[in-house]
Amino acid sequence: MAKKKKKKVAKKVAKKKALKKKHKVQKVRAVRVQYHLPEERKTPVDDFFRYATLIYGRAGIGKTTFVASFPDAILFSCERVSKKIACFDFNTDDGGPGVNTWEVFKAGVKLLENSDRFTTVAVDTIDAAYAHCFDYVCRKRGIEHPTDEGYGKAWSAVKGEFTGVMDALWETGRGIVFTSHAKEVQITSHSGEEYTRIQPTMAGQAYQFIKAKSDFVFYAEYVKNVTKNCSQRILITTGDEVVEAKHAGDLPPFLPFLEGAEGVRIVQDAFSGENVGIDLANIKPGKKTSKASGKMIAMDKVKVARGAASKKKVAKKKVAKKKVLKRR
Length: 328
Fold this sequence. Notes:
By secondary structure, the chain is an alpha/beta fold. It contains 8 helices and 11 strands.
C-alpha cells in the first residue's frame, strides 16, 4: 500500500513539473512576439475563391457538382464518392473509398499543409466529416457515445478535435467550400409564435462553428419560373428568420443555380458586381419549394409591393404639390 501511495505522489509531482515546464515555454514564446499597431488600412480580398463558403440544400440538387467545379479544387468526399464527377478526389485513386474516416481527413489536411497544390478545398459533406470526427474521438476514448463520460468531457474532446483540424485547414490559406443537406425545424419565438425555419443538417457543434467561420452561406432551392412556366434551381444568398443564408459584400438575394463551372461563374460574377441576379417578379413557390422558402419569397413580394405603393404615393404627392405651386 505504501509503495502504491509513493507511486501516485511521484506521478502527481511529475505531472506538475511537466505543466510548469509547458507554461514556462509558453511565457518565453509570448515575450518573443513583437506586436505593433497597423499603419495602413487592410485591403479587402477581391477574390471570391479565397473566402469560405457553405452551400446547403436537399439531396440531388447539384451541390457536389457545384463545389467540385471551383477552380483548382481538391474534393474531400466524406459522405460518398461520386463516380460521375471529373475532379481531383482525395483518396479515390484505384477505387479508394475517399475520406471515409477522420484519420484520412487529417492525413489530407497534413498533406495540404506541406504542399502548394490546389487553391480550394471542397468538403462534401461537412455533416459526414463531423460524424467521422465524432466516431474517431469515441473510439479513441473507448466509449460508444459522449454521454458515457460525465461533465461533458467527451463532448469537449469532439469539439476540440473538430475545430482544431478545421482551423489547421483554414490556416493553409486556401479557399474552402462546404456542403450540407437541409432540414426544416419548428421554432417558437419569444412571443410564443411558431414558424418553420430551414437550415443545414449538420450537428449543433459543427453548425455553430462552420456558420461563424463561413463568409458565404447559400441555400439551394427549387422554385417556379413564371416566365418559362417551369421548375428552376436558385441560390438564396440573403437570409431572414425563416431561411439561413448570408454573404459578404453586396450580392443579389437570388441567383440562378446552374450546373458545375457555369454555376460557379455566376456566383463569381455576382461577387464582382455584375447584374446576374433573378428578378423576384420572375419566380414564385413551386411544388418542390420548401415551406420556409415559399414563405420567404411571399414575404419578399409583399415588401416589394408595399415599396412600390409607397413610391407611387410619394410621386402623387409631388405632382399635387407642383400643381398647387403653379396655381399660386
